[in-house]
């Protein structure tokens, strides 16, 4: 009998410190459960060993919760999609092993997914308004910063990337210097709203092409804070808002410059953002300004699909299933995966 409904996909994400599972039917998200690992906040960064252990204890209840919320029985699923990489090796192993065993037990395909490709393709999920191809995507997360020309779901060109720290890492490292908890991005964003972005001037180095370098900013902020604290030991405590606003303005100026350049060079005005830092209210406002002032068509994901989530992993699974792609049980997780192409192979017809 011919299928009338889009396939039901279970997505599993465990690349860093969020354990997540989701069920989608085509572009419709039926459930998307994310369990954050608060335990890392006390040390100001993700401890890989702790992350793997937490995934191990959370993955089963999170998958069960995603199935319960969706109202779908495991036996109704058509495929299981999971993050193969990039990410933390131990964390990836937990999701990968669980997903492959789960799919194998049900006799359905398991689909390995590239985490960064999933951030970009989260835009196909409802209630979004999917970008038209080709579009430019600024992918900004805790581990990556890339400018990608997306010609089709399985045809992506990386035009530029960070040469050192990722944009999210820049937010997190500066937040740590100011004494803010991990992850620092959301806190800096919040405090920046009450501060003056022109209070302190940090330089905005520009790399060749569409590349970035954020590591100098951290050093610059560190030297600045040490100098000011030496004069007044209440400096950081009393000027937190202004420091956050000034640092955020520098990061956003740096992020926007190659994006603007790429729009000019390629003539592509269909522009999307993706990844954890796309939750930043300042970045969202800059994109909205560019839409008004320069006629860009801007695509900003709903908050739930900005930071790590399994719905975006399931979305890639759906697109791969539609192309008759599937993975094999020997797919091994990898902390580094340079290509943004599908990791599943096309079945011979
Ligand atoms: O995509 P994501 O959830 O995980 C990775 O794949 O890395 O991104 C996490 C990053 C963290 O660095 C976090 O500080 C940053 O996204 N982030 C933000 C905001 N929300 C999350 N950065 C700036 N402003 C935010 N509102
Ligand atoms: Zn991510």
Average pLDDT rating:
95
Summed up, the helix count is: 9
Note the gap between the termini.
Answer: 19 Å
CATH class division of the largest domain: Alpha Beta
CATH topology group of the largest domain = Nucleotidyltransferase, domain 5
Secondary-structure content class: alpha/beta
* Main sheet specs: 5 strands, mixed
H/E order of the elements? EEEHEHEHEEEHHHHEHEHEE
- Count of DSSP E strands? 12
Order of strands across the main sheet: 3-2-1-4-5
* Fraction in helix: 40-55%
Fraction in beta strands: 15-25%
What's a quick, concise take on this entry?
The chain has 349 residues and is α/β, with parallel strands linked by helices. It has nine helices and twelve strands.
Topology:
Blueprint: E1 8-13, E2 18-25, E3 28-36, H1 48-70, E4 79-85, H2 89-106, E5 110-114, H3 115-121, E6 135-140, E7 145-152, E8 155-161, H4 167-178, H5 184-192, H6 215-231, H7 235-266, E9 270-274, H8 281-294, E10 297-299, H9 310-322, E11 325-326, E12 345-346
Parallel strand pairs: 1-4, 4-5, 6-9, 9-10
Antiparallel strand pairs: 1-2, 2-3, 6-7, 7-8, 11-12
Helix pairs in contact: 1-2, 3-9, 4-5, 4-6, 4-7, 5-7, 6-7
Residues 16, 141-143, 168, 171-172, 183-186, 189, 275-277, 279-280, 307-308 line the site of 5'-O-[(R)-(carboxyoxy)(hydroxy)phosphoryl]adenosine (KG4).
């Amino acid at each position: 009998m011919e299928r009338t409904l889009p396939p039901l996909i279970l997505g599993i994400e465990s690349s860093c410190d969020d354990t997540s599972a989701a069920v989608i039917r085509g572009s419709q998200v039926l459930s998307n459960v994310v369990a954050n690992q608060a335990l890392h906040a006390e040390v100001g960064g993700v401890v890989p060993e702790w992350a793997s252990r937490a995934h191990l204890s959370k993955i089963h209840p999170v998958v069960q919760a995603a199935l319960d919320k969706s109202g779908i029985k495991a036996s109704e699923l058509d495929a299981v999609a999971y993050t193969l990489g990039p990410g933390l090796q131990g964390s990836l192993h937990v999701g990968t092993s669980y997903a492959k065993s789960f799919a194998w037990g049900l006799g359905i395909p398991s689909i390995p997914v590239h985490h960064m490709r999933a951030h970009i393709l989260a835009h196909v999920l409802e209630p979004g308004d999917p970008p038209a191809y080709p579009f430019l995507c600024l992918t900004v997360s805790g581990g990556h910063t890339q400018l990608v020309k997306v010609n089709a779901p399985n045809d992506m060109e990386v035009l530029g990337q960070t040469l050192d720290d990722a944009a999210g890492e820049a937010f997190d490292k500066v937040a740590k210097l100011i004494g803010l908890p991990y992850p620092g991005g959301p806190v800096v964003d919040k405090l920046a709203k009450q501060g003056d972005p022109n209070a302190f001037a940090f330089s905005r180095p520009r790399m060749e092409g569409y590349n970035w370098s954020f590591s100098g900013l951290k050093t610059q902020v560190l030297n600045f804070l040490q100098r000011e604290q030496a004069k007044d030991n209440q400096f950081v405590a009393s000027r937190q808002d202004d420091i956050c606003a000034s640092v955020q303005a520098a990061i956003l100026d740096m992020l926007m410059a190659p994006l603007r350049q790429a729009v000019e060079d390629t003539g592509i005005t269909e522009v999307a953002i993706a990844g954890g830092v796309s939750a930043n209210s300042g970045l969202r406002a800059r994109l909205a300004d560019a839409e008004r002032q320069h006629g860009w068509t801007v695509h900003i994901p709903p908050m739930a699909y900005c930071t790590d989530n399994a719905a975006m992993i399931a979305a890639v699974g759906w697109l791969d299933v539609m192309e008759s792609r599937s993975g094999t049980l020997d797919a091994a997780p990898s902390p580094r995966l340079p290509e943004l192409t599908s990791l599943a192979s096309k079945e011979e017809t």
